[in-house]
Every structure is written in C-alpha cells, then in structure tokens.
C-alpha cells in the first residue's frame, strides 16, 4: 500500500495544497495545444488541474490511487477517469497531450525513463508532453513517498531520443526557482 492509498494521507495532501494548481503550466500548454485536443492527466489528485484543463480540452483523468479517483468521482460522476500507474500506463487509448503537475516526481529516474517511453507510445503524432517537477538534483523519501528532483540538463538528456523540447523553464511553486516544467513534442517514429 502506497502513501496515496490511505485516506488520512489524501486528506493531509489536500490541506497542504489548497491554493496550488497548474494554471501557469496550462497557460503555457495553451500556446501549443489546439482547443478540444485530447489530454491525459497523470495524477488527477483532488482534480484542480483536471477542471482547468477541461475548460479547453477533452480530458481523461488518471491516478494510481483509487482513493483519489473515488473522491473525484463523487464530485464529478461524469468525468472520464482511469486507474493508471504512471510507470506502465496500461491503456489502449491515445492522446494529443499527456500532462502532469508534480506527479512524476514520485518515480525513480529509471522509472521516469520507462514512463516517458510508454508515454511516447500512447501519444498521437506530434503529441505533446507537459510535465512539472521539483527543481534540483536529489532524491528524498518521506512517509513512504519518494520525491525525485530534476535539473534541466537531466530532463533534456532523458527526453532527447523521443521528444523535441519546445520549452523548459524554472518557475516558482512555493519559492523562486523551486520547480521546473518541460513542454515537449513527440518525435516521429
């Protein structure tokens, strides 16, 4: 059982992030992704970014945690939701974009590489990725919860074979430069 499989941890998480959402990331995404495109959100959590994305896109939300999915289904029973592990992404669906906001930080560097390869397989031609990470070069574990930090160079190196990076930039989630996002386009296979 993981951190996000426990109701009490989900409640703690929701209290920790009451004012945080991906509005900044989504505004960058809108410069490259046409309205009504299909988007897979990895790690829907409490659903804040899902709702922002749904204003312009056909969004499928996903999470590994059934607790998050069940809580969101109660609020929005018509939302398209999938239980997916970001490492394996076992789905037959394809998407124009895959989006995550500080979700892939819970993977090891090797698992992130595997996830990026699988994401390429379920992206449509010229599909986009938009992911954010904590910025730095370390790995921490808190209460069975892994947090992996990335530098721009590490992300560029991980993506260079499968993706063309459109934009990579540090930004502030809590403090200036504590976060980095990457917007990338799938290379032709």
SSE order, one letter for each helix or strand: HHEHEHEEHEEEHEE
CATH-defined architecture = 3-Layer(aba) Sandwich
User: What's the average pLDDT?
Assistant: 91
* Assembly state: single chain
The low-confidence parts are none
Percent in helix: 25-40%
C-alpha Rg, in Å? Answer: 15 Å
Provide the number of structural domains: 1
Number of helices: 6
Any idea of the CATH class?
Alpha Beta
The CATH homology group name: Vaccinia Virus protein VP39
Class per helix and strand makeup:
alpha/beta
Q: How does this structure look, described?
A:
By secondary structure, this protein is an alpha/beta fold. It has one domain: Vaccinia Virus protein VP39 (Rossmann fold, 3-Layer(aba) Sandwich), CATH 3.40.50. Helix content is 30%, strand content 33%. It contains six helices and nine strands. It has helices at 7-16, 23-30, 48-54, 66-75, 109-122, 152-159, and strands spanning 38-42, 58-63, 80-83, 95-101, 123-135, 139-142, 145-150, 163-171, 179-186. Strands 1, 2, 3, 4, 5, 6, 7, 8 and 9 form a nine-stranded mixed β-sheet that branches. It is globular. It starts with 6 loop residues before the first helix and ends with a strand. The model has no long low-confidence stretch (mean pLDDT 91).
Short overview:
With 189 residues, this protein is an alpha/beta fold.
Present the secondary structure layout.
Blueprint: H1 7-16, H2 23-30, E1 38-42, H3 48-54, E2 58-63, H4 66-75, E3 80-83, E4 95-101, H5 109-122, E5 123-135, E6 139-142, E7 145-150, H6 152-159, E8 163-171, E9 179-186
Parallel strand pairs: 1-2, 1-4, 2-3, 4-5, 5-7
Antiparallel strand pairs: 5-9, 6-7, 8-9
């Amino acid at each position: 059982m993981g951190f996000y499989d426990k109701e009490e941890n989900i409640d703690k998480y929701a209290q920790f992030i009451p004012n945080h959402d991906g509005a900044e990331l989504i505004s960058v995404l809108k410069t490259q992704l046409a309205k009504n495109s299909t988007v897979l959100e990895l790690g829907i959590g409490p659903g804040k970014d899902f709702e922002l994305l749904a204003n312009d896109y056909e969004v499928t939300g996903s999470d590994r945690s059934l607790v998050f999915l069940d809580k969101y289904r109660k609020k929005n029973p018509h939302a398209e939701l999938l239980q997916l592990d970001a490492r394996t992404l076992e789905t037959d669906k394809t998407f124009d974009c895959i989006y995550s906001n500080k979700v892939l930080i819970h993977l090891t560097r090797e698992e992130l590489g595997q996830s990026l390869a699988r994401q390429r397989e379920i992206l449509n031609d010229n599909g986009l990725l938009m992911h954010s990470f904590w910025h730095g070069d370390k790995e921490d574990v808190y209460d069975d919860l892994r947090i992996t930090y990335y530098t721009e160079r590490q992300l560029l190196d991980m993506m260079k074979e499968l993706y063309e990076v459109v934009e990579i930039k540090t930004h502030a989630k809590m403090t200036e430069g504590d976060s980095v996002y990457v917007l990338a386009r799938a290379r032709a296979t």
